[in-house]
Amino acid sequence: QVQVVESGGGLVQAGGSLRLSCTTSGLNFDEHIMGWFRQFPGKEREGVSCISRRRNGGRTYYADSVKGRFTISRDDAKNTVYLQMNSLKPEDTAMYYCAVEDPRRGVGSPLRALRYNYWGQGTQVTVSS
Questions:
Q1: Type and span of the H or E element at 21
Q2: Mean predicted confidence (pLDDT) in 18-44
Q3: How far is C-alpha 38 from the chain's CA centre?
Q4: In DSSP terms, which residues pair with 118 in a beta bridge?
Q5: What's the 3-state SS for 28-95?
Q6: Mean pLDDT over all residues of the chain?
Q7: Which of 36, 102, 104, 117 has the fewest CB neighbours in a 10 Å radius?
Q8: What confidence tier does 77 reach under pLDDT thresholds 50, 70, 90?
Q9: Of the candidates 83, 90, 76, which has an alpha carbon nearest to the alpha carbon of residue 126?
Q10: What percentage of the chain carries pLDDT values higher than 90?
């Protein structure tokens, strides 16, 4: 049984930082692209960042809205992916989700939610002004 568990969300003032973590079990972590998504109330889930498999160079992708502020990384030995979020803005307030990409769905942008088939429960990030 695949499990995806996020942690690290919370309340932070604008300009502050948070580090999200996502640990998985029940799958070969190093075989999957890992992604972070967020969802605003009443909106569809949007891709924030993802990281390819280590053997593919651990290439990273970012939404334009977070480039230069967020950094994704992975530790395959710990089955964990991280999202370091710096210079947070009130508009970053959302529920953040970690997801595991299904290699069979590898078409289109790697930040496309439909490519991911296992999701965590989410962790809330709130940035106060």
A1: strand 18-25
A2: 96
A3: 8
A4: 100
A5: CHHHCCEEEEEECCCCCCEEEEEECCHHHCCCEEECCCCCCCEEEEEEHHHCEEEEEECCCCHHHCEE
A6: 96
A7: 104
A8: very high
A9: 90
A10: 92
